[in-house]
Design brief:
Blueprint (H helix, E strand, L loop, with lengths): L18 H17 L4 H7 L5 H10 L17 H14 L1 H21 L2 H12 L5 E4 L15 E5 L2 E12 L6 E7 L7 E7 L5 E5 L11 E11 L12 H35 L1 E2 L2 E2 L4 H30 L4 H26 L10 H11 L6 H13 L6
Helix pairs in contact: 1-4, 4-5, 4-7, 5-6, 5-7, 7-8, 7-9, 7-10, 8-9, 9-10, 9-11
């Protein structure tokens, strides 16, 4: 179509982006094309991300780690910049976006927002450069959606803190140099507190989780703390209670609003290209009405999701986002992205389950994205509470 350089940009949404934002997107796309795309299927089949440290350094070179944070070696870019980068990363693989998201929006953000100046100086420059990797310990084996009931405990012993407990489904856990760990310190010490934990500390162990059917190109671990002794200044000084981890989760969820669209775009593009090449009944299947109906529905949902993400990004940088607004973004975009991947798979037929095409890998990954950083049910209830004023969580 004349004047339409990208067939998936039916609404010319690129015209809403600045030249600088397009340049950030192009940089993220290029590093993924060079360092991720040629190898990601191999990593996925292997069920590991052996190049995680090398990737972190490559991402650090182009400023993708903690890119929306100010100072300490961080790029200090806008929320739309960060969102566009998440989209490109997840177009390669959700596990790759998770590496960057956990590093920047969870571990680095927690230190940047709530840490002491010593914490920031010690960790943030190295993390921004990809020389140090971080993880975020909140979810426990028996407490996922209800973090207030966590069993990890922190107690004072003289001037020190001593932590016992465990965390699970922790991205980057077994390769991390530093962990932000949340534990219940008791009401007398502020309830739930965050701690900056160098992973070489005695009493800290991390074990890789195997046999995943989703997010396979990612390092996922279980953390265990056995009389983990920390100095008094290991605690994050500027936050007490659940508002600390929830603020970090809002940052990560915002990245998912954009990132999930990357998986959807990759799958839609694969289906569109396949429909032009696959011939049945003496014509490309893209010429049949049912195939075009699927493509039209997928493309429309993708563009609507992009509009929603862009709106939330602009508001985040101006007036900020309320929790229910982030929930609307994650709820809508992840569910619609998963639907797009599943529909794209039907266009590819049996070829859709082959690793030669990215569609089934994206669909499998999004099954995890659907439930981490808040399940679809939890976001539904956040939205419901905003609509009715009634909490349905308990």
């Amino acid at each position: 179509m004349e004047g339409m350089s990208d067939p998936l940009d039916l609404l010319d949404l690129d015209s809403l982006l600045t030249d600088d934002e397009k340049a950030i997107r192009a940089a993220a796309r290029q590093v993924c094309a060079d360092a991720v795309d040629p190898y990601v299927m191999q990593w996925y089949e292997q069920g590991d991300l052996p190049a995680a440290r090398e990737l972190a350094r490559e991402f650090g070179k182009v400023g993708l780690l903690g890119m929306h944070l100010e100072g300490y070696g961080c790029a200090g870019l806008g929320s739309v910049d960060y969102g566009l980068a998440c989209l490109e990363l997840e177009a390669s693989d959700s596990g790759i976006r998770s590496l960057v998201s956990v590093q920047g929006s969870l571990a680095m953000f927690a230190i940047w927002r709530f840490g002491s100046e010593d914490h920031k100086q010690e960790w943030l420059p190295r993390m921004a450069a990809g020389e140090a990797i971080g993880c975020f310990g909140l979810t426990e084996p028996d407490h996922g959606s209800d973090p207030a009931s966590m069993r990890a405990r922190a107690r004072r012993d003289g001037e020190d803190w001593v932590i016992n407990g465990s965390k699970t489904w922790i991205t980057n856990g077994s390769i991390a140099d530093v962990a932000v760990v949340w534990a219940n310190a008791g009401e007398e010490h502020g309830g739930i507190r965050g701690f900056v934990v160098p992973t070489r500390t005695r009493g800290f162990t991390a074990h890789k989780i195997h046999h995943k059917m989703s997010l396979r190109a990612s390092v996922t671990s279980e953390l265990t703390f056995e009389d983990l002794r920390l100095p008094a200044d290991a605690v994050l000084p500027d936050v007490r209670g659940l508002k600390g981890p929830l603020a970090c989760l809002s940052e990560a969820r915002y990245g998912i609003v954009w990132g999930s669209l990357g998986a959807a775009r990759s799958s839609l593009d694969a289906a569109r290209r396949y429909s032009k090449e696959r011939v049945q009944f003496d014509r490309p299947i893209g010429g049949f009405q049912l195939t075009q109906a699927k493509l039209a529905a997928m493309a429309t949902e993708l563009q609507l999701g992009q509009l929603l993400a862009l709106h939330l990004g602009r508001r985040k940088d101006t007036v900020g986002l309320r929790p229910e607004q982030v929930s609307v973004g994650k709820y809508n975009n992840v569910t619609k992205a998963l639907e797009i991947c599943r529909t794209a798979r039907t266009i590819l037929g049996a070829n859709g389950v082959s690793g030669e095409w990215p569609v089934m890998r994206h669909a499998n990954n999004l099954e995890s994205v659907l439930t981490y950083e808040g399940t679809v049910e939890m976001h539904t209830l956040v939205i419901g509470q905003a609509l009715t004023g009634e909490s349905a969580f308990r």
